Amino acid sequence: IGNTVLHILVLQPNKTFACHMYSLILSYDRSKEGPGSLELIPNNEGLSPFKLAGVEGNTVMFQYLMQKRKQNLWSFGPLSTVLYDITEIDSWAEDQSFLELIVSTKKREARQILDLTPVKELVSLKWNMYGRPYFCFLALFYILYMVCFTMCCVYRPLKPRTGNRTSSRDNTVYVQKMLQESYVAYEDELRLVGELITVIGAVVILVLEIPDILRVGAAKYFGQTILGGPFHIIVITYACMILVTMVMRLTSTTGEVVPMSFALVLGWCNVMYFARGFQMLGPFTIMIQKMIFGDLMRFCWLMAVVILGFASAFYIIFQTENPENLGQFYNYPMSLFTTFELFLTIIDGPANYDVDLPFMYSVVYFAFAIIATLLMLNLLIAMMGDTHWRVAHEQDELWRAQVVATTVMLERKLPRCLWPRSGICGREFGLGDRWYLRIEDRVDPNKHKMMRYTGAFKAQDRENYDKGSEKLETNGDTLCKKELSALSLSLSRSTSRTSSHRGWEILRRNT
């Protein structure tokens, strides 16, 4: 019951009352240490009160709990050294990481905890010592891997076509070699080495990604932008395309260009994932993801309807015409592709002035140009501009969340020997087996003096304002509106003059 009450207090809107009641309930807890403590008992979702405060974005309760856990090591004048308990914060030995819970929640208030002590210092320590070097090395390794795969695709086994053409529009001159013909020369053996590296890389990607999907869940793993959800979809699809290409090569099945081209596009697009390691480029990946899966996905439904309708109309108009004079609409798939290009203004409106075109073509194309180019494209630009404005206001916060998510990911993937635990064991200071982060703090005395001076100014302003309000209430029944305005103006001037005088006197005296 006591643990349930603690979880309820974390969710209370009155944070000051919740902190006092939290402390009162813990004062009656008999087992203050060990697994039987009320603070360490998780709820049905596996969250302790401390983790629940982080997930809900309750910064007041989080700071209150951290102040209870900290240990003052020593202080000398303005300098002080504090040990912060990071047992539940550090993701090194946690199955359900506190940092991963914060970046995966949909509440923006939770990401503000990443800027609080000691979370900010812990993330900075992990990222600067281990996260950034490993992430840069991983980015370089992935780019070299993609270069190897690209070269294998460029020099894939082809041979001249021997069959006759069945149509005047048939433009094929090379075809794919059979498996027995693909690995004969020395150059083929070099390509085979690169293909083996590509396939091994695809298998490693699947082995690393599938356990995380099973642990977190597909909805959260692919749906969270900060966790890199869309990029996980891209890299898994890329690995599957590589395996499909391998099967088609081993079975001598024609058409391997389809999965191979998909794999090239997806593999190189995944390079944008590594932009999150740089503060200048990281927020742009968030903008691209939000524009694609927010604005563009909604816009594509409208675009598909417009393209389908006008492409059908163009095909019907040119169905009776000679395709050699205007071949952009000679069949239905080509009409869809041409209308798509016209929609995005990639090509100009096709026309042949040597022949007479149908009159309805001019009418339909006029309506298409007005609806598609002038209306819908400008609507898409306005939607993307609004998304850019919203993301730009929180780009620093989003980049910190990206860094945390990347750090947690690397810490889970890498062996323990390459990523030692951060912090200091409490045994060195007689504090048990809990782990602490040592933070040195400097208290600036000038800052506190300025706070006292500001308080003196504010107190004097409030006092003079109260006196003036009493005077206005006393004479309010006998003065007219004009005299009231004049009195209030003179009162505000005298109040500000008196307040400034008293404030400067305080400054001179303290100096």
TrEMBL record:
It is a multi-pass membrane protein. Residues 135-394 form the Ion transport domain. It comes from the Eukaryota. One of its GO terms (cellular component) is plasma membrane. Keywords: ANK repeat, Membrane, Metal-binding, Phosphoprotein, Repeat, Transmembrane, Transmembrane helix. It is found in: Membrane. Its main location: membrane. GO terms for molecular function: calcium channel activity; metal ion binding. One of its GO terms (biological process) is calcium ion import across plasma membrane. The keyword Transmembrane applies. The chain crosses the membrane at residues 134-158, 192-210, 231-251, 257-275, 296-318, 359-381. This is TRPV5 protein. It comes from Cinclus mexicanus (American dipper).
